[in-house]
Amino acid sequence: MYKTILRPILFRFPPETIHRLIMTCLKIGGKIPGGRALIRSLCTYRHPSLEREVFGMRFPNPIGLAAGFDKNAEAYDDISALGFGFVEVGTVTPKPQPGNPRPRLFRLPADQALINRMGFNNHGVENMQRNLRGRDRRTIVGCNLGKNTLTPNEEAPADYLRIFRCLYEYVDYFVVNVSCPNVKNITALQNRESLYEILQGLFDFRRGQNQYRPILIKISPDLDFEQLDDMIAILKETPLDGIVATNTTTSRAGLQTNKKTVNAIGNGGLSGAPLTARSLEVIRYVHEKTEGRYPIIGVGGIMTPEDACNMLDAGASLVQVYTGFIYNGPAFVKRICKLLRQRAEGPTVPVSEKPTETSDQK
Ligand SMILES: Cc1cc2nc3c(=O)[nH]c(=O)nc-3n(C[C@H](O)[C@H](O)[C@H](O)COP(=O)(O)O)c2cc1C
User: Fold this and answer.
1) Could you tell me if residue 47 is inside a domain?
2) Which residue owns the Cα nearest ligand 1 atom 24?
3) pLDDT-derived band of residue 124, with 50, 70 and 90 as boundaries?
4) Could you tell me if the CB of 311 is within 6 A of ligand 1?
5) Ligand 1: does its nearest atom lie under 6 Å from the Cβ of 121?
6) Which structural domain range is residue 151 located in?
7) What's this model's pTM, rounded to 2 decimal places?
8) What CATH number has the domain bearing residue 303?
9) Ligand 1 atom closest to residue 302's alpha carbon, by position in its atom list
10) For 35, which of 21, 29, 80, 245 could close a Cys bridge (C-beta 3.0–4.6 Å)?
11) Is the residue at 119 inside a domain?
12) How many domains does the chain divide into?
């Protein structure tokens, strides 16, 4: 019903308007007595075979919502009622910032893709702390950290540390985002020296705390293999807990959408189906080079339940979706969970093919 009725209607309106509408509906649904429970009972698929133990935490299933959807941690519990095993909020920056001028989010239906240049629009870390304070912690919430656009790269470590300290007791894991293609020069921080500097402050702060919070870095699909090796070296040489792979790409290779339309959209990160193969390649590479010793959260181009399985098979411990959720609707997570359960239980043999007892076997 979503693809045939609802999506064609929603896709008639600007994507950011629809995103705000969906967030509002989720929040209202969550406030109506019994609303969230109803959504949960319709959308959530629970089974012991779906549970995963990662970073010492028990995830009800391995499917998360990727960063960028709930930038201000306004609706994480309502989103989790849609069946997600965890929700990554943010990217949050120390100070509130408006992001890039609109329009900044575009659909490419012919490619099952989105292009965005949101530019870390968010209400700042203090607002996020208020939204997370006093939460009941049933939903696993990760937080994606960024720097303010106007903060020069040399001062970026202080931005990341400020958010980390402010939210340390309120979220379950952190992701250092240096891979967003929409914030000027931030991807230049994806080198060993800059990352060490950013991470050192976080490790030092964490050492003095009673609670342990995993720290991951989110990497770009546009890194070459040499740069990927640098990221892997950081993973091996520091107390970093894992990698989120991948963010959106600046590449426009192989798109079906006509060139004129793509050029008119302009800059931004491409997500969805065109990213599937590259994200998978990056995950497989990192998994093989690290001999599976570090958790990978796989994200990028999961558009079908089979894509999610492929990513887990390639070495991801958990996966996240964003664009696939927009194109497939609220039943998407349940569909992935059903396939995962089927696979965990092995192939079911159709009745007609069941081995029958022959006289020889008797
Ligand atoms: C509209 C939009 C906003 C996003 N904002 C963020 C963000 O703030 N921080 C971040 O780390 N990734 C952000 N992303 C990237 C996603 O988290 C994800 O890595 C990427 O879209 C690839 O996954 P997908 O193909 O399932 O969409 C955003 C993606 C989209 C489409």
Assistant:
1) yes
2) 300
3) very high
4) no
5) no
6) 2-344
7) 0.94
8) 3.20.20.70
9) 26
10) 29
11) yes
12) 1
